[in-house]
Amino acid sequence: MSDAYRLPQDKYKLANLPFLFFQTNPKASDWMLNYFKKYPKDVLSSGHLAEYLEAMTASWFTDQRSDQLKKLYDATKDALTQKQNETFKSYQNKVDENIKFSTKFYRDIVDFMREKYDR
């Protein structure tokens, strides 16, 4: 990852700011996943793994996405520190919870949106 993401953001505790922009772009999660696969050392050494995974998985609500995260973890687990390992597991849990939520409430959400905004 570029040093531009670390300077001066770390000084002002704004390191996650660039990642917030990725959360609002649906295609960004695919780009981030591919970047992580291609440059795992850069992502892991950046010091911002949690922010990266937060932005990458913000809109992940499917089993396919869960599997992608598991495969990414399996490909990088030998290079992870204990803290990074825990971070990965927490985001895997988050994605799995997102799946449960969307499965449980999808129909209600769609019905609400149609009732409220479909004219």
Task: Tell me what the structure shows.
It is a single chain. The protein has 119 residues and is mainly alpha-helical. The chain has one domain (3-117). 70% of the residues lie in helices and 0% in strands. It is built from 6 helices and no strands. The chain starts with 16 loop residues before the first helix and ends with a helix. Residues 2-14 have low confidence and may be disordered.
Short structural description:
This protein is mainly alpha-helical.
Helix content: 55-70%
Percent of residues in beta strands:
under 5%
Number of strands: 0
The rough form would be described as: elongated
The residue ranges in which pLDDT falls below 50 over 5 or more consecutive positions are 2-14
State the helix count: 6
Structural class: mainly alpha
Major sheet description? none
Integer average pLDDT: 86
The H-and-E topology, N to C, reads as HHHHHH
Give the terminus-to-terminus CA distance: 45 Å
Integer count of domains: 1
What Rg is obtained from the alpha carbons, in whole angstroms?
16 Å
Using brief descriptors, characterize the structure shown.
119 residues; mainly alpha; 6 helices; elongated; disordered N terminus
Question: How do the helices and strands line up, and which of them pair or pack?
Answer:
Blueprint: H1 17-23, H2 28-38, H3 40-45, H4 49-57, H5 63-76, H6 82-117
Helix pairs in contact: 1-4, 2-4, 4-6, 5-6
